[in-house]
Amino acid sequence: MRKVTLELPKYRLQLHMKLTKRREPLLEEPIIPTTSLIRKKYRKGTLPGRFARYMADHRNIRKFFAVNFAAVAITASLMPSKSTNIYAAPSDDTVIQSQYTLETQKTTIFPLNQFRLNQGFSFFHPGVDLGAEIGDPVKPMRAGEIQFAGYTDDGYGNLIIVDHGNGLTTRYAHLSKIFVSLGQEVNINTIIGLVGVTGHTTGPHLHFEVRINEAPQNPLDYLPLR
Q1: Which of 85, 97, 172, 212 has its Cα between 20 and 30 A from that of 134?
Q2: Where are the domains of the chain?
Q3: Per-residue pLDDT, 106
Q4: Is residue 90's pLDDT more than 60?
């Protein structure tokens, strides 16, 4: 802080002025300084610290780093990204092959396409009665082998028994026609017979049973949800 006094004819002014030291301009050449130059310019600090200060203050060095940083930033922004979006829609001429199939194959079906449940499973009724029209096609619940196909006199009428393996069998009774024979391999697309009224029945329907080791099971526990 420096005090300045001005003498005027009628006034005497005292001005208090704060003078600041002007910052020295950034250093010029040389870029690589000598030890004596560093010690002369910077009197405090270690020699490595003085050298770092010299490099930071040098005008040409600062320009060099500023220009190169800008060039690197611009180049990086123009370079294409290597990451790919796996969800991007392919072009029309792109062929994608997958080792997996998205289609779910049915393995168990209802033996009739359309029906009404006339009677359920119980201790006295070892199956379910599916009401339908005479002549409606009947298909096996699962793929298997025909174990029996013919007429019985125990109330089933025309009966088909399909062996699905592992002790699982299914029965289809009261059929009007039978299209399969003993030992034939069938699948869920095979029409094994037609709905009828043979045997002990009061109307056209399919009596359907599921058995495991000849023990009757509730067929609705094995059929898929419609």
Answers
A1: 212
A2: 2-76, 116-221
A3: 76
A4: no
Read off the pLDDT of residues 96-120 as tens digits, 9 standing for 90 and up: 444 544 445 679 999 999 999 999 9
Q: Is the pTM of this model over 0.90?
A: no
Cβ–Cβ < 8 Å for 207, 194: no
Percentages (nearest 5) of helix, strand, coil residues in the chain: 20, 30, 50
Rounded Cα gap, residues 206 and 201, in angstroms: 10
Let me know if domain 116-221 sits in CATH 3.40.50.2300.
no
Distance, in Å, from the CA atom of 196 to the CA atom of 194, rounded to the nearest integer, reads 6
Nearest to 65 by CA among 55, 74, 75, 79: 55
In angstroms, rounded to a whole number, what is the distance separating the alpha carbons of residues 24 and 22?
6
Q: Can you give the pLDDT at residue 116?
A: 94
| pLDDT higher than 60, residue 24 | no
* Residue 218 neighbours by CB distance under 10 Å: 15
